[in-house]
């Protein structure tokens, strides 16, 4: 395959991690990509680091916003507006990709006739923990032949967000008329809302594949969002969300209960519901 993939990274004061993130894109075995880094008025040295990368590789472009937006939704939408690829991929500025991520996902999407693909992930805290996962090499043909694949229709996704943002690769056409919700109250759940809209309007189902191709950086803020704030945000989403133009009704109580149960079991380190992965809320 040689279809162009547009990779979108929102950046805000990510001086400490952005180089590792960009290096993981440069290491991709699939080379037909463009990288749009949308800087949300950073006040640290991250824009200068990104500029150094644009000088190294002409596939990388830095877009600097004139006014701060206060969250990743608007930068992601600007990225979508400027994307030229047949596919789009999303990556947070402190996460890291396995070198074969795009190649394996594109192969899985072709094999399973899917327009939207996510992957399992490995959580990490320090850069030293990246060494072993990044050195793992997949035999593409053998891996595609033995993939564990989870199909995700809307009715499954709405019960629990099992799609890690930085793992998503999707056909860009799916986002025609759909964008990340930019209201401040949707910060940290704007990705979940967007995936729901795509699954409701654009596709019957997405796929999630078993290789842990996303390395998700854990932080104190991401851990704390399992608490009261995230419970309130999910309740708000279920109250405001419309399916086929109608409010969710009493079933939102079931969905909220599922979310709360999952959050509690995650905090306790339990694995009760079998999915390819649990999702940590967006940073």
Description of the structure:
By secondary structure, the chain is α/β, with parallel strands linked by helices. The protein contains eleven helices and eleven strands. It has one domain (5-218): Spore Coat Polysaccharide Biosynthesis Protein SpsA, Chain A, CATH 3.90.550.10. The protein has helices spanning 18-26, 46-56, 73-82, 101-112, 131-135, 140-145, 154-157, 190-201, 220-224, 228-240, 251-267, and strands spanning 5-11, 33-39, 60-64, 87-90, 96-97, 116-124, 149-153, 169-171, 205-217, 242-243, 246-247. The radius of gyration is 18 Å and the shape is globular.
Break the fold down into its secondary structure elements and pairings.
Blueprint: E1 5-11, H1 18-26, E2 33-39, H2 46-56, E3 60-64, H3 73-82, E4 87-90, E5 96-97, H4 101-112, E6 116-124, H5 131-135, H6 140-145, E7 149-153, H7 154-157, E8 169-171, H8 190-201, E9 205-217, H9 220-224, H10 228-240, E10 242-243, E11 246-247, H11 251-267
Helix pairs in contact: 10-11
Total strand count, please? 11
Total number of helices? 11
Q: Span between N and C termini?
A: 32 Å
Gross CATH architecture: Alpha-Beta Complex
Number of domains: 1
Global outline: globular
What is the percent of helical residues? 25-40%
Residue stretches low in confidence (pLDDT < 50, at least 5 long) are: none
Strand content: 15-25%
């Amino acid at each position: 395959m040689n279809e162009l993939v547009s990779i979108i990274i929102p950046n805000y004061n990510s001086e400490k991690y952005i180089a590792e993130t960009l290096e993981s894109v440069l290491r991709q075995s699939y080379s037909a990509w463009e990288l749009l880094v949308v800087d949300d008025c950073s006040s640290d040295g991250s824009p200068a680091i990104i500029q150094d990368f644009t000088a190294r590789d002409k596939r990388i472009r830095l877009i600097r916003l004139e006014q701060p937006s206060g969250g990743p939704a608007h930068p992601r939408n600007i990225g979508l507006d400027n994307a030229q690829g047949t596919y789009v991929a999303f990556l947070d500025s402190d996460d890291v990709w396995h070198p074969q991520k795009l190649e394996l996902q594109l192969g899985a999407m072709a094999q399973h006739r899917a327009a939207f693909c996510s992957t399992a992930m490995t959580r990490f805290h320090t850069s030293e923990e990246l060494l072993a996962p990044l050195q793992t090499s997949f035999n593409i043909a053998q891996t595609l032949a033995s993939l564990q694949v989870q199909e995700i229709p809307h009715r499954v996704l709405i019960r629990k967000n099992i799609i890690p943002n930085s793992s998503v690769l999707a056909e860009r056409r799916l986002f025609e008329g759909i964008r990340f919700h930019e209201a401040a109250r949707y910060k940290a759940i704007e990705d979940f809302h967007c995936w729901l809209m795509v699954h409701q309007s654009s596709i019957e189902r997405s796929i999630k594949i078993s290789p842990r191709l996303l390395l998700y950086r854990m932080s104190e803020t991401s851990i704390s969002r399992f608490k009261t704030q995230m419970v309130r945000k999910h309740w708000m989403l279920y109250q405001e969300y419309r399916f086929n133009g109608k409010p969710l009704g009493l079933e939102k109580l079931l969905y909220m209960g599922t979310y709360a149960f999952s959050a509690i079991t995650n905090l306790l380190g339990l694995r009760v519901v079998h999915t390819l992965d649990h999702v940590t809320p967006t940073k």
